[in-house]
Amino acid sequence: MSEVSIIGIDLAKRVFQLHGACANEEVVFRKKMTRVQLLAFVSQQPECTIAMEACATAHCWGREFEKLGHTVRLIAPNYVKPFVKRQKNDVADAEAIVEAASRPTMRFVALKSEAQQARAMLFRTRLPLTLRNRCWAFRPLLLWLGPGKPLQSLAPSSSFAGQLRTPLIRDISRRSKKTIPCKICQRPKISHNGTSQIGL
């Protein structure tokens, strides 16, 4: 039996599909195993290339596989999709991952460390919070303009800047968080005729 040189793993929550191939791309094995069995099975294999679709859990598994001496290759899902030969299922996906990883011009995703993943999570969490804070800061201005004033009233002026410093405007700023809903933060509502609306 030929020695496996590349293993494609289709990741899932509980059951993983493995596709092993030798150097000449002949199939060595097709296996389905659980999360508990995966690491034990990979540790028994000779040092080879392990390919997976890039995702958050792929980086975690990749770090574990590298500790066992294997070479990890992560591929963007968009680059794997053209190699699926038949209907999309776990077996076909694992085979497509091996096929894509065997291409000499394939672009791979760099394996991230735990610290890099933690920084990326903080950055993605910060973005919606930043947008929300900007909405809160804009609400007092919307209340001051009122429904009938044109957008040209947004132009800065000395009288407007002086009004913003008055206690009345500061009090409006505190109350506006409860009285004025923000159009940016709200999700669009779908009306009965199929059009998208944002209600206040």
Largest sheet at a glance?
A: 5 strands, mixed
CATH level 3 topology of the largest domain: Nucleotidyltransferase, domain 5
Instruction: Estimate percent helicity.
Output: 40-55%
Could you give me the name of the CATH homologous superfamily of the largest domain?
ATPase, nucleotide binding domain
Oligomeric state of the chains present here:
single chain
* Total count of strands: 7
Strand % is 15-25%
Strand order of the biggest β-sheet: 3-2-1-4-5
Q: Would you identify the regions where 5 or more consecutive residues have pLDDT less than 50?
A: 150-156, 175-185, 187-192, 194-200
Q: In CATH, what is the class of the largest domain? A: Alpha Beta
CATH architecture label of the largest domain: 2-Layer Sandwich
Principal-axis shape = elongated
Structural class: alpha/beta
Give me the Rg, rounded. Answer: 27 Å
